[in-house]
Amino acid sequence: GQNIDQPTEMTATEGAIVQINCTYQTSGFNGLFWYQQHAGEAPTFLSYNVLDGLEEKGRFSSFLSRSKGYSYLLLKELQMKDSASYLCAVLLGYKLSFGAGTTVTVRA
Amino acid sequence: NAGVMQNPRHLVRRRGQEARLRCSPVKGHSHVYWYRQLPEEGLKFMVYLQKENIIDESGMPKERFSAEFPKEGPSILRIQQVVRGDSAAYFCASSRPGQSNTGELFFGEGSRLTVL
């Protein structure tokens, strides 16, 4: 089976930084994705890592270490609208396998 | 420029009834995926279809569940004789030809099925 683990919940203050970790043990690997999902809405694509290292995109960055089976999503300068669930997903062939998601609550 | 459209957004059924969930992919996308999301759980892959073909249905329960993506019209996920455990959010996602192995999927807003 596929194991993708991420914390259930995190809380942070507006303007702060939060790092969401994701570890995976899967039978294959074609890339790692982060999606954002607001309550009751569609997941939306945030980032994609296929090689080791850091990918930066505005306030959001994602890091991958394939040898450690580890990724993190870094959210900087948190805003209230960043309160959402963040989903880590591993691509296996054409299939995305998702973790259970981390609910981030941003407080004023 | 419509994204993935799913309907109905909310569906209530009694045990034993049938549920039909529809998904119209992004225009030009010919690959459709269905995922199920239970409360407090991640999205679970159910089925991957291309026009008129089921490519991978390894995540579909063996009984009562079926999916199709006809040449014309939306993809349909059909659940016969629903039970309470079928209550979940069902998400459809689509991708362009050649994009299915890059993982960038466009998701619909989901259909929330409640079985009474």
Describe this structure in words.
The complex is a heterodimer of chains A (108) and B (116). Helices cover 0% and strands 59% of the residues of chain A. Chain A contains no helices and 11 strands. Chain A has strands at residues 3-5, 9-13, 18-25, 32-37, 44-49, 53-57, 60-65, 70-75, 84-92, 95-98, 102-107. In chain A, the strands form 2 sheets. In chain A, strands 2, 4, 5, 9, 10 and 11 form a 6-stranded mixed sheet that branches. A 5-stranded antiparallel sheet of chain A has the order 1-3-8-7-6, with no helix packed on it. In chain A, a hairpin with a 4-residue loop joins strand 7 and strand 8. The radius of gyration of chain A is 13 Å and the shape is globular. With 116 residues, chain B is an all-beta fold. Chain B has strands at residues 5-7, 10-13, 19-24, 31-37, 43-50, 53-56, 65-68, 75-79, 88-95, 106-107, 111-115. In chain B, a hairpin with a 5-residue loop joins strand 4 (31-37) and strand 5 (43-50). The radius of gyration of chain B is 13 Å and the shape is globular. The A-B interface holds A 4, 30-31, 33, 35, 40-45, 48, 87, 89, 91, 93-101 and B 3-4, 33, 35, 40-45, 48, 55-56, 91, 100-110.
Question: How do you describe this structure in short?
Answer:
The complex is a heterodimer of chains A (108) and B (116). Chain A contains no helices and eleven strands.
What is the mean predicted local confidence, pLDDT of chain B?
91
Largest interface, C-beta closer than 8 angstroms, per-chain residues: A-B, 24 and 25 residues
**What is the CA-CA span between the terminal residues of chain B?**
36 Å
SS-derived structural category of chain A: mainly beta
Average pLDDT confidence of chain A is 94
Please write the string of helix (H) and strand (E) elements of chain A. EEEEEEEEEEE
How much is the radius of gyration of chain A in Å?
A: 13 Å
Supply the number of helical segments of chain A: 0
Low-confidence stretches of chain B: none
The count of helical stretches of chain B stands at: 0
Query: How far apart are the termini of chain A?
Result: 40 Å
Q: What's the oligomerization state?
A: heterodimer
Fraction in beta strands of chain B: over 45%
The total strand number of chain B stands at: 11
Q: Biggest sheet of chain A, in brief?
A: 6 strands, mixed
Helix-and-strand structural type of chain B: mainly beta
